């Protein structure tokens, strides 16, 4: 019996193209100016040092740090300091109304339905917890943060590592087998399954599939599943 749902964002409840074609280019456009202007801010300084750490070069110049960050955006690398900085940068875009956080209509209906049935909803995304809050605060449906009980990002571990799902389950008041993890990415579902969670793939954009996980194309098909 499912008591809690942990959902991925991009590709699961949010269109991939919103992240790849709107959020990532916005971050790339504003990153250099943001990092230079805010390099003395404590939370930004921490992430700049974390980039130097990732580069194994404590002496890396700010130019080197910026070049690495821009390369990681281009390659869609889920490197924690990049994801944390992207969250800071997107704040201005959301607050100026440059975009709203995309949520699929079927996902919005599904999240509301599960919430009304007292299923606890959590988020686990490579996007930082700050970025998650921004997307849900400024979503296509207004502020929908009330739907979620908690948020996890790569600070708990990478999404393709079973230990990350074990750590999430340890923070929830349910055994892993009562937790359903939703994602579009098979490697993430494999990791969650290895941690004893139930899994369900959202298959919206022709992603690779696997016999190991049930799959649906839209949450409208959820009720027909016997989970
Ligand atoms: C929180 S919105 C930004 C999403 C993002 O930056 C990202 O890398 C998407 O990763 P996900 O784990 O949600 O597929
Ligand atoms: Mg995803």
From TrEMBL:
Listed EC numbers: 3.1.3.77
A biological process from GO: L-methionine salvage from methylthioadenosine
Keywords from the named record: Amino-acid biosynthesis, Hydrolase, Magnesium, Metal-binding, Methionine biosynthesis
MF GO annotations: 2,3-diketo-5-methylthiopentyl-1-phosphate enolase activity; 2-hydroxy-3-keto-5-methylthiopentenyl-1-phosphate phosphatase activity; acireductone synthase activity; magnesium ion binding
Record pathway: Amino-acid biosynthesis; L-methionine biosynthesis via salvage pathway; L-methionine from S-methyl-5-thio-alpha-D-ribose 1-phosphate: step 3/6; Amino-acid biosynthesis; L-methionine biosynthesis via salvage pathway; L-methionine from S-methyl-5-thio-alpha-D-ribose 1-phosphate: step 4/6
Protein's UniProt keywords contain Ligase: no
Cofactor(s) required, per the database record: Mg(2+)
Catalysis: reaction(s): 5-methylsulfanyl-2,3-dioxopentyl phosphate + H2O = 1,2-dihydroxy-5-(methylsulfanyl)pent-1-en-3-one + phosphate
Cofactor: how bound: Binds 1 Mg(2+) ion per subunit.
Keyword Transmembrane attached: no
CDD domains linked to this entry: HAD_EP (cd01629)
Class in the EC hierarchy, top level: hydrolase
Family as reported in the entry's similarity comment: Belongs to the HAD-like hydrolase superfamily. MasA/MtnC family.
Subunit structure: Monomer.
NCBIfam families named among the record's database cross-references: enolase-ppase, HAD-SF-IA-v1
Role: Bifunctional enzyme that catalyzes the enolization of 2,3-diketo-5-methylthiopentyl-1-phosphate (DK-MTP-1-P) into the intermediate 2-hydroxy-3-keto-5-methylthiopentenyl-1-phosphate (HK-MTPenyl-1-P), which is then dephosphorylated to form the acireductone 1,2-dihydroxy-3-keto-5-methylthiopentene (DHK-MTPene).
Entries under PANTHER family matching the protein: ENOLASE-PHOSPHATASE E1
Protein name, per record: Enolase-phosphatase E1
Organism of provenance: Pseudoalteromonas caenipelagi
Gene that this polypeptide is encoded by: mtnC
């Amino acid at each position: 019996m499912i008591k809690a749902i942990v959902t991925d964002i991009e590709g699961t409840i949010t269109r991939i193209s919103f992240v790849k074609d709107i959020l990532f280019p916005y971050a790339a456009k504003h990153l250099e100016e943001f990092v230079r202007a805010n390099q003395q801010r404590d939370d930004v300084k921490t992430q700049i040092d974390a980039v130097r750490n990732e580069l194994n070069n404590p002496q890396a110049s700010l130019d080197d740090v910026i070049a690495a960050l821009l390369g990681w955006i281009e390659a869609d690398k889920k490197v924690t300091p990049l994801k944390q900085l992207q969250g800071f940068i997107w704040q201005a875009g959301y607050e100026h109304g440059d975009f709203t956080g995309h949520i699929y209509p079927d996902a919005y209906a599904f999240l509301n339905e599960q919430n009304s049935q007292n299923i606890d909803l959590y988020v686990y995304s490579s996007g930082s917890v700050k970025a998650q809050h921004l997307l849900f605060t400024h979503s296509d449906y207004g502020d929908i943060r009330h739907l979620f009980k908690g948020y996890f990002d790569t600070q708990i571990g990478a999404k393709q590592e079973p230990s990350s799902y074990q750590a999430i389950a340890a923070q929830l008041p349910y055994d892993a087998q009562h937790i359903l993890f939703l994602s579009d990415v098979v490697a993430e579902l494999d990791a969650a399954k290895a941690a004893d969670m139930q899994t369900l793939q959202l298959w919206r954009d022709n992603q690779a599939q696997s016999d190991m996980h049930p799959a649906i194309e839209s949450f409208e098909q959820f009720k027909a599943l016997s989970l």
